[in-house]
Design a protein that fits this description.
about 210 residues; alpha+beta; two-stranded antiparallel ribbon
Length: about 210
């Protein structure tokens, strides 16, 4: 099992997750990477992604697990030879099995291209958004793990995975609080985290612990 860590930047940010699945499938065929398939009446390629990224949000910390017997370095090189700059891989790992980041990731860090200032969420953080034609209002303070200074820019750690807080949904409330005009294209995901023995472990370290 090879795991690629890749970026989703530039125009690739506007590819939906479903379109990304198709796009990566074509890339793997073009790169002649020998992907294993499931058994049964409807076999599918054994390719696994980390939790979906919202449209318009950039990331330097996306993960793609590929079930293959090929050498991880060769997979990495073949993939990068056939991919656009916006989806380029910049690290690779070899694991005994699928690390299942889709099911294990619990939160992620996002750096926002705006000057840092303290945002107090202890008293609550209410957001409003549209869902299936309905206006939804909810307090999401329990899904904001933290606010931090990242080189003078504003960083936020948000729930991701089974319990999810889409970063674009906090922007209107954040803009109201700060008097700014932050757009979804100002967001960059920088890390993903897995919960291990009661503590957060960044995805790189978790995957390395599964490496062979």
């Amino acid at each position: 099992m090879t795991v690629l860590k890749y970026s989703k930047t530039g125009s690739a940010c506007f590819i939906s997750h479903i379109d990304l699945l198709r796009h990566v499938s074509r890339i793997l065929r073009r790169a002649q990477i020998d992907v294993k398939f499931s058994q049964g009446f409807n076999p599918h390629a054994l390719v696994f992604f980390s939790p979906p990224l919202g449209v318009g949000v950039a990331s330097n910390a996306e993960y793609l697990a590929i079930d293959t017997d090929m050498d991880a370095k060769e997979v990495f090189e073949r993939y990068n030879a056939c991919v656009s700059d916006g989806l380029r891989a910049h690290a690779y790992f070899t694991c005994a099995k699928n690390p299942n980041l889709q099911g294990k990731v619990v939160c992620a860090d996002y750096v926002i291209d705006t000057p840092y200032c303290d945002v107090d969420v202890k008293g609550g953080f209410e957001i409003t958004y549209q869902k299936k034609g309905q206006t939804v209002c909810e307090d999401v303070a329990d899904r904001i793990y933290g606010v931090f200074d990242e080189g003078g820019r504003l960083g936020v750690r948000l729930a991701l995975g089974n319990t999810n807080l889409r970063p674009d949904r906090i922007l209107p409330a954040l803009n109201d609080r700060l008097g700014r005009d932050i757009a979804v294209t100002d967001l960059l995901k920088t890390k993903q985290y897995v919960l291990e023995n009661g503590r957060l472990v960044d995805a790189d370290s978790y995957i390395q612990s599964q490496s062979i």
